[in-house]
């Protein structure tokens, strides 16, 4: 028998079998790596993180606004009024939610007490409306500024996953009240800044009815008051004045009964808040007084103030304030 016809050694057959088995295992591993089924329980790759710094127009980015899930700072530069306070909203900084924490929105504002002498005791309700869902704002331990003063106030909101400024609106005030509304991006609720209307005073600033004279200092038509929110659509005429009485030794007591306001439609209202003062010969003047007239159905036109002697002595006197742009601050109905 020739050497070419001899059977191969057993070890050679074994080596080929081992090589084949090894190749089969490597192929199976390669296939498993290339195609893992959705339910194999492998952890998902972490989401991509994007950071955008935004400046300029409200919410402006190359795509329009800070994208959902992205961090960034947007310049707002708008003003709202509520509860006697002016909120200058400067920037909105967003941080996206994660698997373990909610997102965050921080509005940087400067708040001013618009009154010279009246303290504001409480903050209005502060929220961000996201497509009908309110997110409560946290102003920490800060208190409203004193009359005429301004303070910086950061307001923090916890936001859901996917939050974006588009469709979100800053809201000051409760439902059923006049609410100041500022859309923070595209969409959102209709804007209403509740900015007071400064009214021109009559040429003769002093209005004298009998023994009582009011020297008018300022007049505003407002959609808010200092510490008592107005109902939806209500307005208030806010007057400041110095008050002087020409009286004898017995003096004279002055209250809101001496003041009336006739609206453009003919309705007359008395003040919802007015000083009660006693005037005597040695102290005939009371300075920096304020009266509020609250009413529904505000409209453009003439608002007529009547000043009457407390004892109905002499002839009542009137001052007329001409008002236009009542609806610019917000709805009246």
From TrEMBL:
Keywords per UniProt: Signal
Span of the signal peptide: 1-34
PROSITE patterns linked to this entry: PROKAR_LIPOPROTEIN
Protein name: DUF461 domain-containing protein
Species this protein is from: Kitasatospora arboriphila
């Amino acid at each position: 028998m020739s050497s070419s016809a001899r059977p191969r050694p057993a070890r050679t057959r074994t080596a080929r079998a081992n090589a084949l088995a090894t190749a089969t295992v490597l192929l199976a591993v390669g296939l498993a790596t290339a195609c893992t089924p959705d339910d194999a329980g492998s952890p998902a790759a972490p989401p991509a993180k994007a950071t955008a710094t935004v400046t300029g127009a409200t919410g402006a980015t190359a795509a329009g606004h800070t994208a959902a899930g992205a961090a960034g700072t947007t310049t707002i530069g708008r003003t709202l009024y509520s509860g006697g306070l002016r909120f200058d909203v400067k920037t909105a900084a967003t941080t996206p939610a994660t698997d373990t924490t909610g997102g965050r929105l921080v509005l940087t504002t400067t708040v001013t007490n618009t009154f010279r002498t009246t303290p504001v005791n409480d903050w209005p309700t502060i929220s961000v409306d996201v497509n009908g869902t309110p997110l409560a704002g946290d102003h920490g331990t800060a208190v409203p500024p004193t009359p005429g003063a301004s303070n910086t106030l950061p307001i923090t909101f916890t936001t859901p996953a996917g939050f974006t400024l588009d469709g979100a609106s800053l809201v000051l005030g409760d439902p059923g009240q006049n609410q100041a509304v500022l859309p923070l991006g595209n969409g959102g609720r209709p804007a209403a800044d509740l900015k007071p209307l400064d009214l021109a005073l009559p040429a003769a600033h002093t209005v004298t009815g009998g023994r009582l004279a009011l020297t008018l200092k300022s007049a505003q038509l407002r959609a808010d008051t200092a510490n008592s929110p107005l109902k939806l659509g209500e307005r208030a005429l806010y007057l400041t004045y110095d008050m002087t009485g020409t009286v004898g030794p017995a003096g004279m007591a002055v209250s809101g009964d001496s003041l009336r306001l006739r609206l453009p439609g003919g309705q007359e209202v008395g003040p919802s808040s007015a000083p009660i003062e006693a005037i005597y010969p040695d102290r005939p003047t009371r300075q920096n007084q304020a009266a509020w007239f609250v009413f529904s159905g505000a409209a453009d036109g003439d608002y007529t103030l009547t000043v009457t002697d407390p004892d109905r002595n002499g002839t009542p006197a009137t001052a007329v304030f001409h008002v236009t742009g009542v609806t610019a601050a917000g709805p009246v109905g």
